[in-house]
User: Fold this.
Amino acid sequence: MRVQFWGVRGSIPTPISPADVESKVIAMAEDVVRAGIRDPEQVSGYLREHHSMLVRGTVGGNTTCISADWDGGSIIFDAGSGIRNLGRHLMDGPASKGEAELNIAMSHTHWDHIQGFPFFGPLFQRNKITIHGGHENLEGRYRGQQMPDYFPIGLDVFPADIRFNKVEPGQRYPLPGGGSFIPKELQHPGKSFGYRVEHGGKSMVFASDSEYKRDDDEAIREMIEFVRETDLFVFDSQYTLEESLVKEDWGHSTAVIGVDIAVRANVKRLALFHHEPNYPDSFIRELLLKARRYLQLNYPDAELDIFVAIEGIDLQL
Assistant:
């Protein structure tokens, strides 16, 4: 199973500012000079070896969109602004001829999770696109986004065959190529849904926009069972621990809770996801380091790989 991250920010698209770009370039240039590197061909190798993508690059500014694919099948999670770049990628294949069958699993329909849909390239060819979700009137919500007051064209203008499928938590739904997914209702204002995807002995869970409190033992136990033994757990870690106390019931979680759940569920890899739009790359890097320290102090024997979800990451499970 191949997993790609197309949008990892929460709440609103957050492009890196010109000032931040300049700051990163200057810092990298100064470091190269201090290292005594004079050969231009050595610069890229040095930076990749000594600095993570959060330092030499950026976490990315697009909102939620992830894809998972395997031989003969795939699934897309959410249609935030990141789905535009996914669409451009898909249009290099069968989708450009209207021959693709695509499945989109929706967590919910808050703006940052649907705003990229009208710019999804496969819509403009006669592809078959099925949108799965647990909310009532999912089709109406999509149509509402493209009313004349908000968008110049309606949903029916697209050549693609767009269908909507209401799913129920706990039920297994088949996907092309022998894959399947199971929805789970999460804790978020207006409801949100997570998904466990399985294919060929590999599994992943997408669980964005969900809040877990340390005293909510039942909800945490349910999530532990849902993600048990998965190869990848994509978890909403938008808030710091301090913020989670102030923004209670806003529907987002912390990296610390994600670590607790992942370790107890024997997950292999934990992706910190749905990054706060006010956090620069440097702050997100600090959150990652704190999560890793928390793991070392509280679960010294755990074999959990924690990483930051970065736009453009391509994983093979």
